[in-house]
Design goal:
The protein is mainly α and about 675 residues long. It has helices at about 25-45, 55-80, 85-105, 110-120, 125-140, 145-175, 195-205, 230-240, 255-270, 275-280, 290-315, 320-335, 345-365, 460-480, 495-505, 510-520, 530-560, 575-585, 605, 615-635, 640-650, 660-665, 675-680, and strands at about 180, 210-215, 365-370, 380-385, 400-405, 415-420, 430-440. The strands form 2 sheets. Strands 3-4-5-7-6 form a 5-stranded mixed beta sheet. It has a two-stranded antiparallel ribbon with strand order 1-2. Helix 6 (about 145-175) runs antiparallel to helix 9.
Length: about 675
């Protein structure tokens, strides 16, 4: 069969033809794409004509866009359905992809041509900003280094890419191996019948007898809040916290240590003190000192808040018991527990009457399922997106969103958005976006299965609801993008700004109008009691200390590893002690509240683009809290507010400085006071 990746897809919106792609097509297609890009790059670099936008900027944007067309679907499959064959392909081609990027970004002739364009001027504002950003990207990639340093940098990039791929492979294998098998159903006291059946189904799928509890990527596990058995809770938290550091075949410590050393050397070659300084230089925040100041403002009050919470739970609360005791406290204090919510939080209702409903009220978007379009896995459901003021003509809407809800052994943990096709006018592309979660799949039976092959509705937790709204905030950033150049569209903003729109979108999960629309009992249709709305607010306020402390812990680890010189990076056997000392030094060490991610399973920083940048969640929370206040000051859930947020933030992408987009919305720079108020810290 011909390799369908070799030519742009003829499916609507350029959706990859997953039904006709086999694993080897990715490798062959990407390698051929790299070869073609190299020839085009040579042609542009050797052009005798004076540099213009058409003969220099346009072809390199097209070149990068074409490589993205080949690479983006592969990485989505790798992360969401990474079979052994796909993982092996990644180990082979990841360094070659990195090398191809080096060939582009370290090409001095291209840099010089862009510099001429920058000096010539006369371009529109977005194009001028893009040219300057290309020049900065190339300088940060080492285009101005001497030959010896440039060669070493290329070697480092290849090594890092290979190690990141290895880390990801070990992470998936280690997470699967750490799943907790329960053989006695009595140990599952506290779980409802649907959850127990789902865990039994997961065990059967692996050929095991009993109940298999797979682990979320975070240190804490949502199931702990419901399990009455303290011994099982202890087993689960031990399995979670021990991932990647048990000395077995899936131990990640040696790999992450080498990644950290290479990043430190990489930063020094480019004139930065450390990797944290290199990363911050490309962000909104600009320096690691500014990062430390932001996090430092929160550490002491967060720990004080957490200790107050701990004293209300038990004399000496353990990490394995915190979530369960919190649930009991909320039940006693407010006559409410989060488990009561689940029958009112059915996935399809949350999606259609919650997430889609809010997007319609704010932005005039409508979502129509496309069962004729296939994703990369049978679980994937595809929706076409339309605007209110335009006819709903198939294949002529705004774009596609693909939902992949359920956990499986080949999927990495967590949740994410991935732009398979980025919106841009240069290549006449509309967005194709994935939304990936890791929900527990309901048990299936041979008869009476629904259209997704499940016999039971998917009842989700309140945390899952927030995650769904969060990830859809990223999707909206893509769907409402309005950029000419591919390199400026959608989420092409600085890493420490990219989480801002997604965190703003979480507010609509709690909005009374939206909550009333989606939170209805899955069997009776009865609305969730309105008094629970206030309980949700009270519960959130009680848990802010814990939530903030675990996030600050993860930030402490990220910053500590990436503020080192190569010789200072701990070896594998020193990793866990280094992690502990980093938490102590930052003032957020509390054994009962482990960091949200420990170093050995910290996918964000070792394999997923957030190295020295996990602070972006906290910085984005500052922008988010300030923006939530703006929405409330201006009437909340209105089409007018949605249009303004879309116009000034979501549509702009990286066509201008990210801080300028916030100023255009708010009329000033962001301030931290709304965040401190939300967190109960002022």
């Amino acid at each position: 069969m011909a390799n369908t990746l070799l030519h742009p897809s003829k499916l609507p919106y350029g959706l990859p033809d997953f039904a006709n792609i086999v694993a080897s097509d990715y490798e062959d297609g990407i390698l051929l794409g790299i070869e073609t890009a190299a020839k085009e790059l040579t042609r542009v670099a050797n052009d005798d004509e004076a540099p213009t936008v058409d003969n220099t900027l346009r072809p390199i944007e097209l070149l990068e866009g074409e490589l993205r067309r080949l690479v983006a679907p592969f990485f989505q499959v790798l992360w969401a359905d990474g079979t052994d064959e796909i993982e092996e392909i990644n180990l082979r081609i990841a360094p070659k992809i990195a090398a191809a990027q080096d060939e582009l970004l370290m090409n001095r002739a291209i840099y010089d041509r862009l510099a001429v364009l920058d000096n010539t001027g006369g371009h529109d504002a977005a194009t001028t900003f893009l040219i300057k950003n290309w020049l900065k990207r190339m300088r940060r990639a080492g285009v101005l280094l001497n030959d010896d340093d440039a060669a070493r940098l290329r070697s480092i990039n290849a090594e890092i890419t290979e190690l990141q791929a290895k880390f990801g492979q070990l992470l998936v294998a280690g997470n699967n191996a750490a799943a907790v098998l329960v053989t006695d159903a009595q140990e599952l006291a506290g779980l409802d019948d649907e959850a127990i059946a789902a865990y039994a189904s997961a065990a059967a799928a692996q050929g095991l007898d009993g109940y298999l509890i797979s682990l979320e990527l975070t240190s804490g596990q949502q199931i702990l809040s419901r399990l009455a058995n303290p011994e099982l809770r202890a087993r689960i938290i031990e399995a979670s916290l021990g991932r990647g550091s048990d000395g077995g075949e899936n131990d990640t410590r040696a790999v992450l240590s080498q990644i950290a050393k290479l990043r430190a050397e990489h930063a020094q070659l480019l004139g930065f003190a450390n990797h944290a300084a290199y990363v911050a230089d490309n962000g909104v925040i600009e320096t690691p000192e500014a990062v430390a100041e932001l996090l430092g403002q929160l550490a002491e009050p967060a720990m004080a808040n957490t200790r107050r919470e701990a004293t209300q739970l038990a004399d000496e609360v353990q990490a394995s018991d915190w979530a369960y005791l919190t649930e009991q406290l909320l039940r006693d204090k407010f006559n409410f527990d989060f488990e009561q919510l689940r029958p009112y939080l059915e996935l399809q209702s949350v999606l259609h009457n919650g997430v889609f409903n809010a997007a319609h009220e704010l932005y005039g978007l409508n979502f129509v399922e496309r069962p004729d379009l296939r994703g990369y896995h049978d679980d994937v459901v595809v929706y076409e997106v339309f605007d209110d003021d335009k006819p709903q003509i198939p294949n002529e809407g705004r774009g596609l969103v693909m939902f992949d809800f359920y956990a499986r052994p080949t999927k990495r943990g967590g949740a994410w958005m991935n732009p398979i096709v980025p919106q841009n006018y240069l290549m006449e592309q509309k967005p194709v976006i994935t939304q990936t979660l890791n929900l527990v799949k309901p048990a299936a039976t041979e008869n009476d299965a629904n259209e997704n092959g499940n016999s039971e509705p998917t009842l989700i937790t309140w945390t899952n609801v927030i995650t769904l709204f969060h990830e859809f905030g990223h999707a909206l950033h893509g769907l409402l993008s309005d950029a000419y150049w591919p390199g400026q569209s959608m989420i092409s903003v600085p890493t420490d700004f990219v989480e801002y729109p997604s965190q703003v979108n979480e507010m609509w999960a709690r909005d009374p109008q939206i909550l009333a629309a989606y939170a209805n009992h899955y069997e009776t249709g009865e609305p969730m009691p309105t008094e629970w709305y206030e309980h949700l607010k009270d519960a959130r306020e009680f848990g802010e200390g814990f939530a903030l402390t675990e996030i600050l812990g993860a930030n402490a680890i990220d910053q500590a590893f990436h503020r080192l010189t190569p010789s200072e990076v701990p070896d594998a056997e020193q990793v866990m002690e280094f992690e502990k000392q980093a938490l102590i030094d930052t003032g957020v060490y509390l054994p009962a509240v482990p960091p949200r991610y420990r170093a050995p399973y910290y996918n964000h920083i070792w394999s997923s683009g957030y190295s020295a940048g996990y602070y972006s969640y906290m910085l984005s929370k500052m922008f988010d809290a300030d923006t939530v206040q703006w929405f409330k000051e201006n009437g909340g859930l209105t089409r007018e507010n949605g249009r303004r947020f879309a116009t000034e933030v979501l549509s702009k992408g990286f066509t201008r400085d990210a801080k300028e987009s916030f100023r255009a919305l708010r009329g000033r720079d962001a301030i931290i006071e709304p965040l401190l108020t939300r967190l109960g810290l002022n």
